[in-house]
C-alpha cells in the first residue's frame, strides 16, 4: 500500500497538531491501588461501588481508571441502588470518547455535574420518593476527583502525613451558605416543632423535613434540594496517599484525625474494619456505618503497613494551587510534584456557573447536545444555560452550553424560578 507524501508547503490545522502532540505523550505510570471496605448495617440503606478497571476508551486497557463511591440512602434504598447502577455510565456519557487523558481529566468536573443532575432527573421520573447521598471518587494516575452531595465524606492523608477533606458537608445544621441558598430559592429551614414554641433536632428543609440541602432523588421535597455536586480535583505527590470514604455513621462518631489515627499502619482491609469498629464503639450502631479505605501507592512502594507515616504530623494543610505555568495534569517525577496540588474546586449550585466553560474546555463538548441529559438537538432548539441568570461575567444568552426544554425547566426549579412539588410528608426524613 503506497502512501502519498504531503507537499512541502502543506499545512495542518493547529488543532490537528495539538491532538497529535497530546496523543504521543508518554502515559504516566499508574500507581498501585489497594482497597477494602467494611460495614455494619442498621437500616440496610448504605451501598458502595468499587471498580478499579474502568476504561475511558472501551477496549483500551491503557486508559483505565478506578472508581469508589458510597451512596447513603434514606426513605428506602431505591435511590441509592439506582445511583450506584447508573451514575458512572452517566459520567462517561457526558464526556466525548475521543479525548486524550489530559483533556479527559479537565472535562471531568463538568461531566460529573451533568451526570449527577441527569441521574437525579431520571430517577425522579420513576416517581419513587427515596433519596440518597453520593460521594463519588475517580482516581486516574495520581489525580483524584471527588464529587459529592449530602454528608458522606472523603478525606485524604498524604504520604507526608497531612490531612485534606475532598468533599463538602451538605447538612443544613453545619452549612450556613446552603441554608441561605435554600431559603433564597423558596424553601423554609427550621427544626421540628412540638408546639408551645419548643423545637428540637437538627435543621431541616420544609416541605419534606430533609436534613440535607443536596441529594439525588427526594422528588417529594422542594426542587431547591439539588443534585449539583461539590467537585474537588487534586493531584497527589509521587509518594501517594490514603483515602477514607465513609458514610455519616462514621463521621458522626469520629473526627478526621481519629479515623486516620486508629487505622494508621494497617493494610486497607484491617483499616476499614477498624474505622467502623471505632465508630460503632463510640456511639453504638445508630445508623448504617460504612467505610472504604483506598491506598494509592507508587508501584515500587511497599504497603503502608510496612512503611508507616512519619510521626508528629496528621495535621490539616492548605492545598498548593496549580501553577499558571503548568499546562498539564499528567503525572511526572519532578521534585515539584512532591506535594498535594489542587487542580479544581467548585461547590456552586448554579448550573449556569458549573456548566460554563472557557477555551479549550468548551471545544471538548458537542454544541447541539443538551449539557445535562445528552439529548441531541437541532440548531436553535437548545436553551442557553445562561438564559435568565445573573452571571458574574458578561455573557450572552445565545452562548452555549445549551439545555433541552426539560432540563431547562429543572434548572429553573432548582434556582427557585419554578413551582416546587408539594409534600405533606414532614418529619419522616433522614434524621442524623
How would you sum up this structure, described in words?
The chain has helices at residues 14-23, 78-93, 101-124, 176-184, 248-251, 256-261, 268-283, 351-354, 405-414; strands at residues 32-40, 46-55, 64-74, 131-132, 134-140, 143-149, 153-158, 162-165, 188-195, 198-206, 216-217, 230-235, 241-246, 289-297, 315-316, 320-321, 341-346, 383-384, 402-403. The protein has 432 residues and is of the alpha+beta class. The protein folds into three domains: 29-169 and 215-341, Phosphatase 2c, domain 1 (4-Layer Sandwich), CATH 3.60.40.10; 171-211, no CATH class; 350-423, no CATH class. The strands form four sheets. Strands 2, 3, 4, 5, 6, 11, 12, 16 and 17 form a nine-stranded mixed sheet that branches. A six-stranded mixed sheet has the order 1-14-13-7-8-15. A two-stranded antiparallel sheet has the order 9-10. The longest helix has 24 residues, at 101-124. It is globular and about 60 Å long. Mean pLDDT is 82; it is low at 1-13, 15-25, 305-316, 323-337 and 419-432. One of its GO terms (molecular function) is protein serine/threonine phosphatase activity. This is protein-serine/threonine phosphatase. It holds the Pfam family PP2C. It comes from Asparagus officinalis. InterPro entries: PP2C, PPM-type-like_dom_sf, PPM-type_phosphatase-like_dom.
Describe how the helices and strands are arranged.
Elements: H1 14-23, E1 32-40, E2 46-55, E3 64-74, H2 78-93, H3 101-124, E4 131-132, E5 134-140, E6 143-149, E7 153-158, E8 162-165, H4 176-184, E9 188-195, E10 198-206, E11 216-217, E12 230-235, E13 241-246, H5 248-251, H6 256-261, H7 268-283, E14 289-297, E15 315-316, E16 320-321, E17 341-346, H8 351-354, E18 383-384, E19 402-403, H9 405-414
Parallel strand pairs: 8-15, 16-17
Antiparallel strand pairs: 1-14, 2-3, 3-4, 3-5, 4-11, 5-6, 6-12, 7-8, 7-13, 9-10, 12-17, 13-14, 18-19
Helix pairs in contact: 2-3
Amino acid at each position: 500500500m503506497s502512501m502519498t507524501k504531503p507537499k512541502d508547503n502543506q499545512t495542518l490545522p493547529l488543532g490537528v497538531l495539538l491532538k497529535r502532540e497530546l496523543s504521543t505523550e508518554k502515559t504516566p505510570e499508574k500507581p498501585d491501588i489497594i482497597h477494602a471496605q467494611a460495614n455494619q448495617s442498621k437500616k440496610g440503606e448504605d451501598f458502595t461501588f468499587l471498580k478499579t478497571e474502568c476504561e475511558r476508551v472501551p477496549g483500551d486497557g491503557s486508559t483505565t481508571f478506578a472508581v469508589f463511591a458510597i451512596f447513603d440512602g434514606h426513605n428506602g434504598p431505591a435511590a441509592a441502588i439506582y445511583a450506584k447502577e447508573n451514575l458512572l455510565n452517566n459520567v462517561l456519557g457526558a464526556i466525548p470518547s475521543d479525548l486524550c487523558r489530559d483533556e479527559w481529566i479537565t472535562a471531568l468536573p463538568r461531566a460529573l455535574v451533568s451526570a449527577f443532575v441527569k441521574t437525579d432527573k431520571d430517577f425522579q421520573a420513576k416517581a419513587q420518593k427515596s433519596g440518597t447521598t453520593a460521594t463519588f471518587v475517580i482516581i486516574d494516575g495520581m489525580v483524584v476527583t471527588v464529587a459529592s452531595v449530602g454528608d458522606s465524606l472523603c478525606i485524604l492523608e498524604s504520604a507526608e502525613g497531612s490531612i485534606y477533606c475532598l468533599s463538602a458537608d451538605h447538612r443544613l445544621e453545619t452549612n450556613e451558605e446552603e441554608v441561605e441558598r435554600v431559603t433564597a430559592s423558596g424553601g423554609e429551614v427550621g427544626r421540628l416543632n412540638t408546639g408551645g414554641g419548643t423545637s428540637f433536632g437538627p435543621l431541616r428543609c420544609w416541605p419534606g423535613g430533609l436534613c440535607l440541602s443536596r441529594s439525588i432523588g427526594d422528588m417529594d421535597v422542594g426542587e431547591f434540594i439539588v443534585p449539583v455536586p461539590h467537585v474537588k480535583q487534586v493531584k497527589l505527590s509521587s509518594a501517594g496517599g490514603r483515602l477514607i470514604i465513609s458514610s455519616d455513621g462514621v463521621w458522626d462518631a469520629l473526627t478526621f484525625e481519629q479515623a486516620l489515627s486508629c487505622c494508621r499502619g494497617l493494610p486497607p482491609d484491617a483499616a476499614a474494619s477498624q474505622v467502623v469498629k471505632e465508630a460503632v464503639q463510640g456511639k453504638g450502631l445508630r445508623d448504617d456505618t460504612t467505610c472504604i479505605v483506598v491506598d494509592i501507592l507508587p508501584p515500587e512502594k511497599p504497603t503502608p503497613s510496612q512503611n508507616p507515616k512519619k510521626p508528629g504530623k496528621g495535621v490539616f494543610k492548605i492545598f498548593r494551587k496549580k501553577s499558571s505555568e503548568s499546562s498539564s495534569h499528567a503525572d511526572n517525577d519532578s521534585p515539584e510534584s512532591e506535594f498535594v496540588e489542587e487542580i479544581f474546586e467548585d461547590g456552586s449550585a448554579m448550573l449556569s456557573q458549573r456548566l460554563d466553560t472557557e477555551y479549550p474546555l468548551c471545544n471538548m463538548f458537542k454544541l447541539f447536545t443538551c449539557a445535562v441529559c445528552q439529548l441531541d438537538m437541532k440548531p436553535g432548539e437548545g436553551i442557553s444555560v445562561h438564559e435568565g441568570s445573573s452571571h458574574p461575567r458578561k455573557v450572552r444568552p445565545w452562548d452555549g452550553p445549551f439545555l433541552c426544554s426539560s432540563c431547562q425547566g429543572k434548572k429553573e426549579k432548582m434556582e427557585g424560578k419554578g413551582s416546587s412539588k408539594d409534600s405533606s410528608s414532614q418529619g419522616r426524613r433522614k434524621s442524623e
